[in-house]
Amino acid sequence: MPLIDIQVMEGVFTDEEKGAMIAKVSDAFGEVVGATLRDATSIRVHEVKSGSWGYGGKPLTTEDAKAMRARG
């Protein structure tokens, strides 16, 4: 059934935060498609290696992503 992929930089989010992402995305998707498909949906959180994510034409590191997150 449906599969949702979330990609984040490694080491930026805790396991608890990734769990919250999964729960909230599942709930939001379920509001649109209904409970049956919500319960049949898989969600994967992929962590991309530091420096392997390009942003603004430059490699983004875990430290860069944490600094961005700290700014709100």
TrEMBL record:
Pfam families: Tautomerase. Belongs to the 4-oxalocrotonate tautomerase family. This is 4-oxalocrotonate tautomerase. It comes from Hwanghaeella grinnelliae. The keyword Isomerase applies. GO terms for molecular function: isomerase activity. The keyword Isomerase applies. Coiled coil: none annotated. InterPro entries: 4-OT-like_dom, Tautomerase/MIF_sf. Transmembrane segments: none annotated. Residues 2-62 form the 4-oxalocrotonate tautomerase-like domain. Keywords: Isomerase.
